[in-house]
Amino acid sequence: MLDLKDIYIQAEDDPATTNLDGKGYDAQMLHGVQIMRDHATENIKIFNPRGKEYYDELTSAEYELFNQGWRKGVLNLVLQVYRNRLDVIEKKIPQVLNNHKTLSALKERRSGLLKKYFKLTQKLNQL
Question: Which domain holds residue 41?
Fold first, then answer.
């Protein structure tokens, strides 16, 4: 398993990652996933927005996704989030079959998520 310090170094060196350094911390972000190193404690944590306006630290199972490195971990985590969203949409579709407007909105969201999912899957397969 890779050390969080190694993963942070990979994030810093990744040209696709955005630098979000601030007072008292260094941070990098890719596809909404943020890795942060605190200056005072040297603790490194990885956060996922989960579609919210604030970030939650990853669960231990989600940290396992980063065993193969920063980029693969981010892509696998985002794909997992997309799969969860697609599952929610699939469960809602039978409930709204009589409401054509809502049904078409759900189908449109599903189509957009599937395009993003496919695009990220291609990127992951190229690594």
Answer: 4-126
CA pair distance 72, 94, nearest whole angstrom: 34
* Structure tokens that stand for 77 in this block: 């985590």
Residue 110 identity (one-letter amino acid): R
Residue 95 and residue 80: Cα distance in Å, rounded?
Answer: 24
Closest CA to 31 of 64, 79, 83, 86: 79
Tens of pLDDT, residue by residue over 97-127, are: 888 899 999 999 999 999 999 999 999 998 8
User: In total, how many domains does the chain have?
Assistant: 1
Helix (H) or strand (E) holding 69: none
Contact present, 28 and 17 (Cβ < 8 Å): yes
Query: DSSP readout, 1-53?
Result: ---HHHHHHHHHH-TTSEE--BTTEEEEEETTEEEEEETTT--EEEEE-TTSS
- pTM of structure: 0.87
Amino acid at position 76, single letter: N
CA separation for the pair 100, 105 (Å, rounded): 9
